[in-house]
Design goal:
7% of the residues lie in helices and 57% in strands. The protein has 296 residues and is mostly beta strands.
């Protein structure tokens, strides 16, 4: 097995003199992974070669580590059963590989403007993009799945663009009451694209290159998916002495993944919450209960 992961990130906030506040973060992650197949098994052995799946069907009296696992002439799997119908797990470790290489960049940029005391407007842009290369490779001579060998590769990219504009208002209504109102607009665009190729019938043992295989099957591995969703929302919260709250809100969303007649969906919400640890003096300095909230 191999897993290498490198991550770098940074962020910051700048408060300007003209009531603007600018903040943002950016992150970069690079991952390189390679492992033998280790999926589930069905019946006697695994369908496509699995280290753990084939070990399960290995008797305890078989000396696995000293048993030969590879034919010295053609490189095929060798195991204890006469028909050789279960793949030697050690052959799988040395001749079957699954892996991926991922590069991901994501972050956000936010601009906030304080209009008056208690009222602010904000815009936030979010970005998430990754590219991924995946491979599944098995030398010829396997007892499970692809006895003639297989080399399958896919290259994919996924991008998410997120736009948020929202208003926030907070005020006190007398000595005991406070009101918080949030309203905004959200838009999310998603684009996923994948290209791939499956090659079977390996010519030269040990060489994983599409030119080293006889048959090619691109069908079913290439596709493009785009979607967009938008929504407007509002929420109001009325609080009493910071221990009793009533919330009323709603959101109307539109999604391109639904039929035209059903793309608009409205989600209303009403809730109430009570915080006993703030309401009762006997619980405010409790040694066994720091915070308790009841919500309905």
């Amino acid at each position: 097995n191999r897993l290498i992961r490198n991550t770098i990130g940074m962020g910051g906030t700048a408060k300007l003199n003209n009531n603007f506040t600018l903040s943002g973060t950016i992150n970069y992650v690079k991952t390189d992974m390679k492992t033998p197949p280790n999926g589930t098994s069905f019946g006697s052995g695994s369908d496509f070669g699995s280290v753990f799946g084939d070990i399960i069907y290995t008797p305890r009296n078989i000396d696995l580590m000293n048993w030969p696992y590879q034919n010295p002439i053609d490189g095929s799997s060798v195991y204890y059963r006469g028909p050789n119908d279960i793949q030697n797990p050690r052959w799988t470790v040395n001749n079957a590989f699954v892996g991926s290489k991922v590069q991901r960049t994501y972050g956000n940029l936010m601009l906030k403007y304080d209009i008056i005391k208690g009222l602010s407007a904000s815009y936030r842009f979010g970005y998430d993009n990754y590219s991924e290369y995946q491979f599944y490779s098995v030398n010829k001579g396997a007892a499970d799945g692809f006895p003639l060998g297989i080399h399958q590769t896919t290259s994919a990219s996924n991008q998410i663009l997120n736009h948020d504009f929202f208003l926030n208002y907070l005020t006190d209504l007398g000595e005991n009451w406070d009101l918080t109102v949030d309203a905004g607009f959200n838009s999310v665009e998603r684009t996923y694209q994948q290209n791939g190729l499956r090659s079977t019938n390996q010519l030269v043992f040990g060489l994983f290159d599409h030119d080293n295989f006889v048959n090619y099957t691109p069908n079913g591995l290439d596709y493009l998916v785009k979607s967009q969703s938008m929504g407007v929302y509002a929420n109001a919260s009325l609080g009493y002495k910071q221990f009793l709250y009533v919330n009323v809100g709603g959101r109307n969303g539109w999604s391109s993944t639904l039929e035209k007649a059903n793309r608009s969906l409205f989600y209303p919400s009403v809730s109430a919450s009570f915080i006993p640890t703030s309401a009762f003096a006997g619980l405010q300095n409790s040694n066994f209960l720091n915070y308790l909230k009841i919500r309905a």
